[in-house]
Amino acid sequence: MKVHKTITYEYKNAPIPGGGYVTGLLYHPKQPGILYARTDIGGVYRYEYEKKCWKGLIDSVSMADISETFPIACALDEKKPERLYVMSGINGQGYGKFSISENYGETFIHKKIPVTVHGNLCGRGTGYRLVVDKKDENTLYFASQLDGLWKTTDRGDTWERLPLEENYMTCVWVSDDSKTIVAGTAGYTIRESDTLRGHSLYVSYDAGQTFEKLMQPENVMIHDSKMNGLVASRYDYDGTYLYVTMNVTGRWNYVVDLGYSCDSGDVIGGKVLRYYFSDGKIAGYDDITPDADGTLTAEFLNYGFGGISSCKTMPGLLVCSTLCREKESDEIVYLSKDYGSSWSVSLCGLEKGDLYFNTSYMKPEYNGNHCLLHWLSDIKINPFDPDEVWFNSGTGVFMTDALLSEHPRYHDACTGIEETVHLNVYAPVDGEVQLVDIVGDLGGFAFRNLDEPCKNSFDDSEGNRYITCINADISDADSNLGIVTARGNWKGKTKGGLVRTCDNFKTFDRIGMPFGINAEIDKKLHEIENPNVNAGWVAVSPDGVNIVWSVADGIRLPVELVLVSNDGGHSFQKAGVFDLAGQPVETGYLKVFSDRSRKDLFYGFGGASEIYVSRDGGRNFYQKQPKEAFPVCDFGYIDTANKTEVRGEGGKTGIFYLALGDAGLYKLCYDTKTEEIHVKRLTDTGDACYRMGLGVIGEDRDYLTEEKAIYFCGRLEGEYGFYRTFDEGKSYERLNQDNQMYGEINSIDGDKRKFGRFFLATGSRGVLYGEMKRQSRKI
């Protein structure tokens, strides 16, 4: 056994917190103190009222199967408060994962459902999609995203599709007597034309044996909408009325079939309906749609509606939220005390509702003096406390415990929610910053204290944030110096490209775009200046003078878009790339890295494991053939599509370690005298290395001048886990338990100063650092 021991490790989040789209909230209707939140990419959380924080329920999920990080629906059993159902999955697999917990989500058993399920697919903001039959705990209904309405009578052992023609479902409601079922659909399978959906709402009065159309408002045709027609979004039932919110695909929506919710662009034409019953059937509806002031209106609105919720302890109390109103103004939370017959505005952006932010980066001064609230697709009143309301957003959850007061003081309540997508992590060799965290959506954070949220993500001189950075390169010679590839933010307050820090990530300046090299490059640079466009991948020499930029085309790094500056970014030119025969390379991909010690050396890795070296500061790259066999891997991807990790060894010239997935962990050595490249596989055949980083090898040791500890996640002798080696793969120590997996791992780096500490950039559980419980080892 090469893994000769398991070291007891503790893992903590370097707190963001929040940052991602919480897609739904769920209270237990009978037992106080039970509240769950589902997220698009971060699994399910349970709120711990005594601690006032959220607890993630996916820590045991490993990279072998990350389905549970993508929940589309949760359900609870009224009679068994400890029971939790979760439906999750990954698009393209053809099946979903149906998970059952009998202990509030601490552990699960899993079953398959033969339909496509994906919690990060457009339309993820609608619901309820999964419900338990109140008369039979073994019977559940599931409104799938692409495959129709389904039912199980044996708690998921088998499933049958109900006779509803529409494939694109949004929600399902079942009456207390189990006879009446209302199904919300996107009306796409039965669409009337290429620009008009079919009917959305259907009802069954015979427990799902047959369905008929349920009355709903007439559709209004909007000529610049790609797909017209109302779609049911959310519902609530208070024992008397069934409330439904509906929306139309918006003018700027970039998705057609699934473009019925905020998460696919925008929605308009929102409606709030109140269905009433007579003789056991739905007899009709009242249109209780409020306008911006809360007055009932029949007009076509330029925004939609998300969640709606009632409260059993205060009959007549309702709240509902707008959706995609932030495109022109601020989102609104409405309050009604008479079943929706009249409304008042409880929250409107920064103007009403006394909204404040506990999390610094959410504050208006860091968001162009705007309110960042968006995607309010769900809202819930505590069934046992009419003053407590929670709503979701695209950046975490918010709440008030004083709904009925004149000053509800809404605020973010995201402690414990860490579901942002972290793309790369870097541990500098010195300086105040302990961790540089490269993050999807939010941009990047420089942690000076690993246990405290940063004041803001990477920003300009006015506090306007950059978003979704892709990578950073930090000088080992001077940790004050770093360059980052960043996207410009949604509001256009910042523009994408290269941003540089010269003061240890305190401030940033944007390097000017090098227009004028050629038309193709100019086109890509102009695209990058648009909001939310990938900038690419960057490498910088230790002195900051030479900069090589692989400009992005989406998630790819085309070889013809590699630029180089030899004057600190004042001017750029197109880099030359040459194959083994000395001929120019005009197609393919190239990801660039700097030598950790020499300013003139840069390295490039291609789409089919081509290796290039530049000895002139990045102006020209020449392909080198390794003397040994080297597996074929595609290094030309970025963002979450990047499936390799390359780390240059600090204090050395020409030494790199490469995590190549199932091909294992490799070491690359470039001899500057002979210009030869040698590669060596450090892991055994059959072992895998997915992500890796380098750290200091022992207590009171020096990272730059001594050998390195290698930290990685991978599979050794068939067992996935986190590992470290001090002897380049001759022996290993495991660093985690089965309940310390944390979903998808996108990047790993070892601490360069504190022995034993390493960092995990996850795609579902935030950025974490692991430390030994006892640090007694010396080498």
From TrEMBL:
Give one GO biological process term. xyloglucan metabolic process
This protein's source sits in the domain of life called Bacteria
InterPro entries per the UniProt record, alphabetical = WD40/YVTN_repeat-like_dom_sf (IPR015943), Xyloglucanase_GH74 (IPR052025)
Q: What is this protein called?
A: Endoglucanase
Source organism = Roseburia intestinalis
